[in-house]
Amino acid sequence: MQSFNVQIADKFGLKEAVIINYLQYEIGIYQKSNKNFYEEKHWVNDLKDKLLIAQPFFINKSRVNRVINRLLRKNVIVRKRFRSHPFQSSYSYAFEDENLFLPRYNENFKKEMKYD
Description:
By secondary structure, this protein is of the alpha+beta class. It has a single domain (6-109), classed as Winged helix-like DNA-binding domain superfamily/Winged helix DNA-binding domain (Arc Repressor Mutant, subunit A, Orthogonal Bundle), CATH 1.10.10.10. 51% of the residues lie in helices and 12% in strands. A three-stranded antiparallel beta sheet has the order 3-5-4. Helix 1 (6-12) packs across helix 2 (14-33). The protein starts with 5 loop residues before the first helix and ends with a helix. The model is unreliable at 105-116 (pLDDT under 50).
């Protein structure tokens, strides 16, 4: 089942809203457990693989890549490679502005997006 905020979908697109919602969920968990926090952001590893499992309507990695690239171009998310091993090649993803996209923790987001 896909979950998203309608106001976010209006602003960024349906598929983008699903990914934003998924990142909100994952990062919310990391915030509570104080994990994956580097360079003042909480990062989600292996996002593409996790999305394909959690949101099967994306069907394949190329579809996920297209949506992620749109979010990168819109400056909603950022990506970075944190290499703990020389052969590690996957990216980690975070919100460009975590305060803006985490409605559970930020009242300004609710006001701006009319999120209830």
